[in-house]
Design brief:
HIT family, subunit A, about 130 residues, 5 strands, single chain, alpha+beta, 5-stranded antiparallel β-sheet
C-alpha cells in the first residue's frame, strides 16, 4: 500500500508543495511544530533512511539544503534544523524546521495555521527556493 507521501507525490491528495525535482519533493507539514516546517522526501518509496544507497542519501541531503536555505530566507529564525525520526510514516522524510531556540524542535507541540497561512508560507518558500 502506498504511503501518504507517495499519494502526495502522485498528486492523489493535496499538499502545499514548496520544491520538487526529478527525485525529491518538499511540502509543508500539515501538523507543523513551527511555522515553515517542511518535509522533504525522496520520490522513491523507501522506509528507512539508512537503507538508501550513498548516492541517493547525498542527493536527498543536497535537496534538503536547497529547501532549508529557502526556508531561512522566508521565516525569521536563528537557524534551520533538520530531524529524521522515521516512525510516523513508512517513507523516508526529513523534517526541515526553522529554529529560534532548541525548544522549537519539540515534536510534542504543534502550531495551528489556516489554509490561507499555509498557502502564503508555501508560496513564499517556493519562490525563495526557486531563487536559490
Amino acid at each position: 500500500m502506498p504511503s501518504i507521501f507517495t499519494k502526495i507525490i502522485r498528486r492523489e491528495i493535496p499538499a502545499y508543495i514548496v520544491a520538487e525535482d526529478d527525485h525529491h519533493i518538499a511540502f509543508l507539514d500539515i501538523n507543523p511544530i513551527a511555522v515553515g516546517h517542511v518535509l522533504a522526501v525522496p520520490k522513491r518509496e523507501v522506509d528507512y533512511i539508512f537503507s538508501m544507497d550513498d548516492a541517493e542519501l547525498a542527493a536527498l541531503m543536497a535537496f534538503v539544503k536547497r529547501v532549508a536555505l529557502g526556508v531561512e530566507k522566508v521565516i525569521p529564525c536563528e537557524r534551520v534544523g533538520m530531524a529524521v525520526v522515521g516512525l510516523e510514516v513508512p517513507h523516508v522524510h526529513v523534517h526541515i524546521v526553522p529554529l529560534r531556540e532548541m525548544a522549537d524542535m519539540d515534536f510534542s507541540k504543534r502550531v495551528k495555521l489556516t489554509e490561507q497561512e499555509f498557502a502564503a508560507i508555501a508560496d513564499a518558500i517556493r519562490e525563495a527556493v526557486g531563487a536559490a
